[in-house]
## 1
Amino acid sequence: MTKKIMVKGMTCGHCVRHVEEALKSIEGVKSVKVDLEGNSATVELAHEVKDEKIKEAIEDAGYVATDIQ
């Protein structure tokens, strides 16, 4: 299962790493690819992870998840 998250507030490579680390810390996340230019992150999940948990991890890292598909 794959989810794409639109992330607001990323401006540099440090931001990308923060978002990657935040998403990788969620149980059930197998891989993460963050696209700075596209203001998005794509996560590959081992099992269902609630959107609220993903949103919370991104917000705890200092960014805003505006949409999860």
## 2
Amino acid sequence: MTLSARSSRLFRKLASVLGRGTRDRDGCGCGGASRLLALALALIVPVLAAAPDMALAQDVPSSRDQISLSFAPVVRAAAPAVVNIYSRRIVRTRTVPPLFNDPVFRHFFGERMPFGPSMPRQRVENALGSGVIVRPDGVILTNRHVIEGADEITVVLHDRREFDARLVGTDERTDLAVLTIDAGRDPMPALPLGESDSLEVGDLVLAIGNPFGVGQTVTSGIVSALARTSVGLTDYRSFIQTDAAINPGNSGGALVDMAGRLVGINTAIYTQDGGNVGIGFAIPVAMVRVVMDSLLEEGRVRRPWLGATGQTVTNDIARSIGLERPSGVLVAEVLEGSPAARVGLRRGDVILAMDGRPVTDEEGLRYRIATTPVNTDVTLTVWRRGGARDLTVTLRPPPEDPPREPTVLRGRHPLDRVTVANLNPALAEELRIPSDAGPVVVLRTNPRGGAARFGMRPGDVVLSVNGREPGDVRGLARLMERARPPWRLELWREGRTLRVVIGG
């Protein structure tokens, strides 16, 4: 006898007992109430008792088709478009003959050897990764770090055909690269681009790549999180997090949804020992699409510009301006002549959404802007004086005004062989510093020069030399040539003003 049958018998017996009626000590008849209770129990309890059996029947597969559910149809469609990428780089070094490493020589000559030329040597560095064919004419997406510095790039298709690849361009800020291969007249298997903005936490996804060089591998998982902005992998921090197994060699491979569309490029894992621990990150296809189109059309990446800076809204800020929750970006500065200034965005406004999509923090706003094609109209939802309003702004590329004029400074002064440039909105956007921070920015320093010794580094902005503003790179060169020690430099760095005195 089943559990539900025994339960039904028990409750029917209880109902019959209650149905006979009882009488209390005062002689008050309660038979009617008891019969009503018995009737209710007789109707309800059998249904409750049968519930476990009903739930069990729903959970257990009832047909062979239900047992045979598989991701195979999605894999069959997507896997041929995922390729293996092998890159080779020849590294040339010069080594000292073994004799000169003898302690006796070291004792007399130290690190300087007055004789004996160094011996040139070459070694080959190999790198392994994955890629995705996204157009039938052989356009391939991968990570920049997979092919960085490569002298030769080889692409191996799913059917084991090999091709030499040509590098179209790379984007350091997103760690993306675009390659092409020539497969003749036959169209290549290509993976259609999906919509990463339509993903939800919990959606099923597949990761396809070549981990550890073992060959093409498919792993499954779910979208664990979206818009991960705390992961400092690239300049634009808005990653898809997944628990689908991603390992070394998967970089540049495909993250695919259940419709067989590309929704992300697998780029990194969180690990403590080099292996997968269930935390992987992919670049959303919304970012991939903009970078790819720009590299293919212009050979470089053009990004849109709003022309406003701000900070993430905190709890204290939200309470002070009447927002229900801490979300959005508080505008701190609007640059004159920028797209933001043209539509009337003001200091103190809070940007809550862009084209109806919520903006939770500063990195989220940067991502939304960066995934929008240049010269596109977008709608900003702004909180101002206790109410929300919409502003339509055209996102244009940041201007190259004044021209950068990268210049290597020369002379008997601390900035010898330091590379500087005029700071304009385009360069400021690349370096992630305010375009009004100062006139001249440091691009590179000489590791053996005086600038490196007193701590100058790329991204520093030169405000003055011995109390005089440089104006531009040519002005800075003149000031450094004429100035005599001690040199008093005033620098801007990460919102702070530094004063350095050298010599004298």
## 3
Amino acid sequence: MITGPRQSGKTTLARSAAPNAAYLSLEDPDTRSFANEDPRGFLGQLGPQTILDEVQRCPLLFSYLQGVVDADPRPGRLLLTGSSQFEMLDSITQSLAGRASLLTLLPFSLGELRAGGRSVPTIENLLHEGLFPRIHDRAIPASDWLQDYVATYVERDVRQILRIQDLAAFQRFLALCAGRIGQLVNIASLAADAGITRVTADAWLSVMEASYLVFRVPPWLSNPSKRLIKTPKLYFCDPGLASWLVGIRQPGHLMAHPLRGPLFENWVMTELLKARLHHGLRPALHFLRNKGGNEVDAFIETAPHTGHAVEIKSGSTIASDFFDGLDFWRQNLSGIEIQPWLIYGGDTRQDRDRGTVLPWTALGALLDGIAGTDGVAASGSPKGR
């Protein structure tokens, strides 16, 4: 089962991994009608290996897939893709528990772009264009593609699930979320600014997360159960989408934009997330913060009592206070050995006593460590893509 946002490359990956498999898309009205009206007949005519694309469009199928898989349990006979967690994960938990392997596929990483000869020249280009495959594969102007993406996928999918009537309010809510990336999630404030109720804002944000538009990063606490009730931070799964939603239409707009820093932080957080998810690992992504304001942007626990602390700065010049949060947590996070990193917008690597400094173009050393691989995670690429 391959899940992820719309247009992240799920179908391409499935068809590449199984080039001889039959392909059926549940987006096709006739195929979806057949599957809904006669699920047993639909599944009964499947070949020796089949790709079922966008299966969230027909959640009824999951109840019948269990019998099909049990009758012929050969691994890889069915490859499913889908872009909404709500219907799929609930159905998989109930019907396909222990029978399905899950992979979450996000848009390209910077390493993948380079491997494909599509590297971006500047931070501003990267944050403006984002990393959705089609923008780079087809050389489509990012603003044009993202505008259509929001209209054809984001608004359609989320409105379909929530039956949203006031499109203007939802568009305003999207922009407000994009303007608060890297901040603690304040549902009450979001709701007030969008002119909706807190209950509505909570529901909209949950569906955006389930549709792989945004993700939340919880604080790290030694007690895992307490992490679930503490306030998380909000990020978008693609920095280009967030940039478009706040009105950035050209790379040059990012030179002095007030959200340049948060957008750069957002991009690094997605690279960390991809390095984990694309290798079948739990996200394990947190941040460090105490009441005194001592903070580190990212913390990834890679083994018991061991973790990577990452400070993220978009500036191209290193200041000594960039390391203050790293210094504090190395001294005060008891029982855990921390490897400190500083990711910045410059172009020089430095191995300092206070931490390893990596330019934005050289995240590979960090990504290898948090993914537990040797040279593969620098691309953040799932095998086969």
## 4
Amino acid sequence: MHYVYVLWSNKLNKRYVGSTEDISKRISEHNRGCNKFTKGGIPWNLIYSEEFSTKQEALKREKFLKTGQGRKFLDEILKIRKGAGVV
């Protein structure tokens, strides 16, 4: 399986969108400072993820979530989840 994930850094007050085959391992790498872009935002918390059967599907969705429409979608879905006490 392949995953698209969204991480949140309270330190930077920003989110990060990525894709991987192993979410746990990838989050651990982000929180150990293995990624240049996310190194300054440690700790990162998983706030959203989606599962796909192929890498191509996951990469397509990741690319979408990084567009204006994708960011708007995340804002809406995370606002709904936060209102429900989930995030």
